Amino acid sequence: ILLGVFFILVALLFTISLFISNLDKALHSAGISYGFIIFGTNLTNPLNELLLALQPVFPLDYILITVMTMYFVMTSMAGIRNMGIWFFWIRLYKIRPKRTRPQALLFLCMILLLIVLHTSYMIYSLAPQYVMYGSQKYLVQVRKNNSYNFP
């Protein structure tokens, strides 16, 4: 029961982070003609803040990214195992222990590759600042008398 509650909270964190990120893009982006590019985050994204907070301690952010990817793969595998492989409204294959056809396993591998591809794309929406900039800071350079002044 505790594991189920934990995974529901993780799914809720992903849902809230995606909602806040997409709301920020809709409200504060450059518009549809520029592909909803956003130049700075205006709304606080909890997953983004968590990854930025874990970044100074070396492996923790990588562990969280790995856990997120494995969560998506495992939940997708559980869904495919329970539903089977469908093409629109036609059931193509059932996934059963020791009785799955080889063609179904090939379809399953293709679907899993697409899930991993989608996860790598979705990370940009879940944690935009962490993925694009990380802990980078801007250094303002002011030129005075042929020399650079660093604040």
UniProtKB/TrEMBL annotation:
<feature type="transmembrane region" description="Helical">
    <location>
        <begin position="104"/>
        <end position="124"/>
    </location>
</feature>
<keyword id="KW-0812">Transmembrane</keyword>
<protein>
    <submittedName>
        <fullName>Lysosomal cobalamin transporter</fullName>
    </submittedName>
</protein>
<keyword id="KW-0472">Membrane</keyword>
<dbReference type="InterPro" id="IPR050854">
    <property type="entry name" value="LMBD1_LysCbl_Transport"/>
</dbReference>
<keyword id="KW-1133">Transmembrane helix</keyword>
<feature type="transmembrane region" description="Helical">
    <location>
        <begin position="62"/>
        <end position="92"/>
    </location>
</feature>
